[in-house]
Amino acid sequence: MRCSAALAKVRGAAKGPPLPMCILYLQDITYLRIPVADTPEVLIKKHFKECINFIHCCRLNGGNCLVHCFAGISRSTTIVTAYVMTVTGLGWRDVLEAIKATRPIANPNPGFRQQLEEFGWGSARKFSIWMPLGQTMDPSV
Which of its termini does the chain have fewer beta carbons within 10 Å around, N or C? Predict the structure, then answer.
């Protein structure tokens, strides 16, 4: 299984509504597209559960997952940080430091950093309950 999680730039309302969140299956690759703008006021954390579940399912099925956005600096880094926090129990600062060791330009915007900090206060621990069991997350949690 090959997977790709894309965080697409959201276009302004004047150019039409943003594309919906969707999962596409093309060329034996499963894609999850999340339309998220890279601005501090955007609530990226509302997508954490779905993205973490998507990445984890890919890994459980022996696949690789490419998480990407336009520049690979803020949005994709935020999603990967949330996932690693969930599976390791590490705090966001430690995870971000590890990511920066291989991708020095990784730098979530201040609003996303705040949301990662809040995520670490409880949701990451709650999500991690399913990870050791090799299960996907219950969407109702």
Answer: C
User: In the predicted model, what is the mean pLDDT of residues 89-102?
Assistant: 96
* 3 included as an active-site residue: no
Q: pTM for this structure?
A: 0.76
Question: End-to-end alpha-carbon separation of the chain, Å?
Answer: 26
Among 120, 109, 113, smallest CA distance to 85 is for: 120
Domains and CATH numbers, the chain: 2-128 (3.90.190.10)
pLDDT tens figures, 13-51: 334 444 455 555 556 778 888 989 999 999 999 999 999
| Catalytic member of 3, 57, 58, 69 | 69
Query: Which residues lie closer than 8 Å to 121 by C-beta, 6 or more apart?
Result: none
Q: At what angle do helices 110-120 and 92-102 cross, to 10 degrees?
A: 130
Distance (Å, whole) CA 51 – CA 34: 9
- How many Cα atoms are found within 13 Å in the side-chain-facing hemisphere of 27? 1
Q: What is the rounded CA–CA span in Å between residue 57 and residue 34?
A: 17
